[in-house]
Design brief:
The structure holds two protein chains of two kinds. Chain A is of the alpha/beta class. Chain A is built from 13 helices and 14 strands. Chain A has an eight-stranded mixed sheet, sandwiched between helices. In chain A, strands 2-1-4-5 form a four-stranded antiparallel sheet. Chain A has a two-stranded antiparallel ribbon with strand order 13-14. Classes of the chains: A alpha/beta, B alpha/beta. At the A-B interface, helix 7, helix 8, helix 9, helix 10 and helix 11 of A face helix 5, helix 6, helix 7, helix 8 and helix 9 of B. Chain A: This is ABC transporter ATP-binding protein.
Chain lengths: 402, 342
């Protein structure tokens, strides 16, 4: 029984329910993804944004079944109504590239250096269509390369990846992703490794890929500018969970979760000449090892009250398919996207080191150094704080990918 | 205003060429990567000069060559009236009190085996500024407080701090000698946005409080617009446009500056979806073999779409010099024209 023949045409293209991913490590169970839900409708672009370590990449690797065997994945991922979690690799191979395809961040490593780019495209085509002749596959590969804007495609199919620049390689990766007319393309930071002028080219190619294949897309990025230009809906992740979901304009102009508001307020603007102070968010994202109860954003939140520390808020409906995980979302709404209304611009000076040895706080968040961690800043309130994970240390997902 | 003042740092015709060795038994030099290839800039007291460009354009090499960390192969760097090019390590050392650098990667630029106290105290000891332990402790305490960290935590190691905090330690170390000029080489690009804003605010405060001048090297033009007084745009080892901040962002005259500004996505859905975008083709050419004449012509939207063959001839043969386009505004294009992009 193959997956693709047993699908329900009325079901949503891709639906993810209560997805949880845990990685066992020496420091304890790293709960990298903590209950992600989303549905992707046909033709839609869903932007997933979050800072490093927020679990946005792990979510997508779980959908594709590409996590290492040590990962403990639970919940449900349905492609056209058919469960993907728990499928054997053989069955998943029929979905990957055909039903759901993926574009990775680094075009320098996602192509095989010992095969010609043409061969790598043809391979994708022939693995899903055994009857395809090699001539037909070659012709289709040339078409695809032309579509993604590679000049002289008929000759360049014979090139090796090292003969291409980074931008050209990412075009090849996109050609491979669109080769079999997939229903869903998952793009994980597709332009992060590229310069801005090349990024603009690649974003244009992605739009072409979507219109050529009619695919829906999940676009994962930390760049709020890229999402603003291309996404229909946005899902904001923090500490492994969605904390706000909504239409792109609602998220940018009427954010209802303090984290989203803070994120937008901390961005310097290219199109603004006023020397307005930025509004940083104090502290750092929490470590996802042994999270304390309560809202994970509470230690950094300007609206923090005692109630925030008891239970983690669920996504509350705030209208028009817009949900936010905050018990004081009405107050956030009154800021109408003005971060300065809520955030103190000097807040980030409350910074204190993580990995404290004898700090007074009751929680123990373990950091990668193995030190029991909890920062207590000189001016932060004495409520329990999660151990702040460092932003750039390899998060479990990155460490696993290496 | 700046033209009447004396620059604190003046760079003329700076060159940094890296030799390319042949593959044979005898390693002959077969060419050179012209990472910085004749660069002029002036930094005035109390100003922030942003230096922007894409990866490989030579902006970091410029910063290192100015500080003599990678000796320049040609040109001149005059700092407070003294020539720096050609100085050896010993002659350079006393000058380092006045010009310091903060590096991009706060994970690689701090010694993981030293506690924060030692990292910040090291410059003070090397330069013999204090031999008194109590005074040393007091100075480190003040420095650490200045950058917004808790002085109680100076007995900890860099690994116990987050990225933003480590970058603050790097800044405290650079400030230890009370320099006049800081070269900031991508100081916030390794940080997540919510952390980046705090470090940018700190840099702005320090500049005001301590009367510093910054050479702020970055690829993120939004950050550069936020912090700089003037901005210089680099392409393939040369400055192609320099202007006061708002002048550059509101009336860019070089086609590359225009394309660069147009390529950056704005975090505003309505604006972003209604923009006219200039998309330039191709990638940055190799600095080992830059195009003849104007270096940007191989990707230039104006060269490709607007110019006649006779006009193009000039682009291919004559390298455009930096010419005045307005008050303190200069750009290197034969057919420069101000355009509104944002």
């Amino acid at each position: 029984m193959s997956i693709t023949t047993n699908t329900d045409p009325t079901a949503p293209l891709l639906s993810v329910e209560d997805l949880n991913v845990r990685f066992p490590t020496e420091d304890g169970l790293v709960h990298a993804v903590r209950g992600v839900d989303y549905t992707l409708r046909s033709g839609e672009v869903l932007g997933i944004v979050g800072e490093s370590g927020s679990g946005k990449s792990v979510t997508s690797l779980a959908v594709m079944g590409l996590l290492p065997a040590s990962a403990r994945v639970s919940g449900s991922v349905k492609y056209r109504g058919q469960e993907l979690l728990g499928q054997r690799d053989r069955a998943m191979s029929r979905v990957r590239g055909k039903g759901v395809s993926m574009i990775f961040q680094d075009p320098m490593t996602s192509l095989d250096p010992v095969y010609r780019v043409g061969y790598q495209i043809e391979e994708t085509l022939r693995v899903h269509d055994r009857t395809l002749s090699s001539q037909a596959a070659r012709a289709r590969a040339v078409d695809l390369l032309t579509m993604v804007g590679i000049p002289n495609a008929a000759e360049r199919v014979r090139s090796y990846p090292h003969e291409f620049s980074g931008g050209m390689r990412q075009r090849v990766v996109i050609a491979i992703a669109m080769a079999n007319q997939p229903d869903v393309i998952i793009a994980d930071e597709p332009t992060t490794a590229l310069d801005v002028t090349v990024q603009a080219q690649i974003l244009e190619v992605l739009q072409t890929a979507l219109s050529e294949t009619g695919a829906a897309m999940v676009l994962i990025t930390h760049d709020l500018g890229v999402v603003a230009g291309i996404a229909d809906r946005v899902l904001v992740m923090y500490a492994g969970r969605p904390v706000e979901v909504g239409g792109v304009e609602d998220i940018y102009y009427e954010p209802r979760m303090p984290y989203t508001l803070g994120l937008l307020g901390s961005l310097p603007r290219l199109d603004s000449s006023t020397k307005q102070r930025l509004t940083p968010i104090k502290g750092a994202p929490p470590s996802v090892v042994n999270m304390p109860p309560g809202c994970p954003f509470a230690p950094r939140c300007p609206l923090h009250v005692a109630e925030c520390d008891t239970t983690e808020p669920a996504l509350l409906d705030v209208g028009r398919g817009h949900t936010a995980a905050c018990i004081r979302t009405d107050e956030v709404g009154r800021a109408h996207g003005e971060a300065a209304a809520l955030f103190d611009e000097t807040a980030a000076d409350d910074d204190a080191p993580r990995g404290g040895r004898a700090d007074a706080s009751g929680t123990v968040g373990t950091t990668d150094t193995g030190a029991p961690g909890d920062p207590v800043g000189e001016r932060t309130d004495p409520t329990p704080q999660p151990g702040t994970g460092s932003l750039l240390d390899p998060t479990p997902e990155e460490a696993d990918r290496r | 205003m700046t033209s009447t003042r004396e620059p604190i740092l003046s760079v003329r015709g700076l060159e940094k060429h890296f030799p390319i060795k042949g593959g044979g038994l005898i390693k002959r030099t077969v060419g050179a990567v012209r990472a910085v290839d004749g660069l002029d800039l002036d930094l005035y007291p109390g100003e922030v000069l942003g230096l922007v460009g894409e990866s490989g354009c030579g902006k970091s090499t410029t910063g290192r060559a100015i500080l003599n960390l990678q000796p320049a192969t040609g040109g001149s760097v005059v700092f407070q009236g003294r020539e720096l090019v050609g100085l050896d390590r010993k002659a350079m050392r006393p000058l380092r009190r006045d010009i310091q650098i903060v590096f991009q990667d706060p994970y690689a630029s701090l010694n993981p085996r030293l506690p924060v106290f030692d990292i910040v105290a090291e410059p003070l000891i090397i330069h013999g500024l204090t031999t008194d332990q109590a005074e040393l402790r007091e100075r480190v305490r003040t420095l650490v407080e200045t950058v917004g960290l808790n002085p109680e935590h100076t007995n900890r190691y860099p690994a116990e701090f987050s990225g933003g905090q480590r970058q603050r330690i790097g800044i405290a170390r650079a400030l230890a000698l009370e320099p006049k000029v800081l070269v900031l080489d991508e100081p916030v690009s390794a940080l997540d946005v919510s952390i980046q804003a705090g470090v940018i605010n700190l840099l702005e405060d320090l500049k005001e409080r301590l009367g510093l001048s910054y050479l702020f090297i970055a690829h993120d033009l939004s950050v550069v617009r936020h912090i700089s007084d003037r901005v210089a745009v680099m392409y393939l080892g040369k400055i192609i446009e320099v202007a006061p901040r708002d002048e550059l962002f509101d009336r860019p005259t070089h086609p590359y500056t225009q394309a660069l500004l147009s390529a950056i996505p704005l975090p505003d859905p309505r604006l972003e979806r209604n923009r006219q975008r200039i998309i330039i083709t191709g990638d940055v050419p190799s600095p080992a073999n830059p195009p003849s004449g104007c270096r940007f012509r191989t990707r230039c939207q104006k060269f490709a779409g607007e110019l006649s063959d006779t006009q193009r001839e000039k682009c291919m043969t004559v390298e455009p010099p930096l010419e005045p386009r307005g008050p303190e505004h200069r750009s290197a294009c034969h057919y420069a024209e101000a355009r509104t992009i944002l």
